[in-house]
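This part of the workshop introduces the protein records we will be handling. A record pairs a protein's sequence with a compact description of its fold. Comparing a sequence with its tokens is the quickest way to learn the format. The record below serves as our worked example for the rest of this section:
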Amino acid sequence: MARPEIAKLNPESKLPDLPIKVLHRTDGKGSNYIFSDFLSKVSPEFRANVGTDVSPKWPVGAAFSRCQDLLANAAQTPGAIAYAELRCGDKSGLSIARIRNAAGEFVKPSMKSIGDAAQAMDSK
């Protein structure tokens, strides 16, 4: 069912009353490393239980080798949540989550927002 934390962050959205179905990439993918690194930085619990790796030990979910297959499955699965490279996600027609930045603002991933984040990190 829709988690209260997600509903609280999306007060303007009518979220479906469905169980969340997690989809992720298979072992050895660079996108696993990038996503697990992000999750490890924002969640001490994730860092302790899963950590940063190209082959994370995801606690739940179905694995897909190609981002196109993962996104096609997400499109056909009610309640699915997944991650993919921006180049795949942009072409999928699926909704893309906004990510909270260091200033607490929710920003849609784009080449510009990713570049801005990289520049901010580089300046530190």
Notes: The mean pLDDT is 88. The beta strands are 21-25, 62-64, 80-81, 99-100, 106-107.
